[in-house]
């Protein structure tokens, strides 16, 4: 192998190492009734495993829940709001009636900034708790 080819190969290898593959940020939320605003006494619990790819602004999730007062009627990411505050729907979660719920969405720049800043929460609604039965703040 010539020195020029060897140098080119090394340079390409270094560029690949520096750039590296794109990895999603791992985030999570732990959902319960006491995190609702105002809190409730629901026995329901849940978790949201969340991946966020900053390069593509793709948000992906798997939400698992149990023990709700009845079937889930809606589920959403809400924001921007810190824990203890309420906000409007930012990203709808389709087909919430069966656990687990999986899906994805592409965020706007503003939504991405709020998500990364910890200003999103996951909320699952039921007929008995139309404002939300279980909720959890999204954290890294």
Q: Considering the protein shown, what is the CATH homologous superfamily?
A: Superoxide dismutase, copper/zinc binding domain
Structural class: alpha+beta
Radius of gyration: 20 Å
Helix fraction bin: 10-25%
Q: How confident overall, as mean pLDDT?
A: 89
How many beta-strand elements?
8
Task: Determine and state the CATH class.
Answer: Mainly Beta
Q: Assembly state here? A: single chain
> Beta-strand level of the residues, as a percent range?
35-45%
Element order, helices and strands? HEEEEEEHEE
CATH topology: Immunoglobulin-like
| Beginning-to-end CA distance, first to last residue | 47 Å
Cross-sheet strand order for the largest sheet: 1-2-3-6
Number of helices: 2
Note poorly predicted spans.
5-21
Number of domains: 1
Note the overall shape: globular
* CATH architecture annotation name: Sandwich
């Amino acid at each position: 192998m010539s020195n020029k080819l060897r140098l080119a190969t090394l340079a390409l290898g270094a560029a690949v190492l520096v750039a590296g593959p794109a990895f999603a940020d791992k985030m999570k939320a732990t959902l319960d009734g006491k995190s609702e605003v105002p809190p409730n006494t629901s026995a329901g619990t849940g978790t949201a495993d969340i991946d966020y790819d900053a390069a593509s602004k793709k948000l992906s999730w798997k939400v698992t829940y149990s023990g709700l007062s009845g079937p889930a009627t809606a589920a959403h990411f809400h924001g921007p709001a810190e824990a203890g505050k309420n906000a409007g729907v930012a990203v709808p979660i389709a087909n919430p009636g069966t656990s687990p719920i999986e899906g994805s969405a592409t965020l706007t720049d503003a939504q991405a900034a709020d998500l990364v800043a910890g200003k999103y929460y996951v909320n699952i609604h039921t007929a008995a708790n139309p404002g939300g039965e279980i909720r959890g703040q999204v954290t890294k």
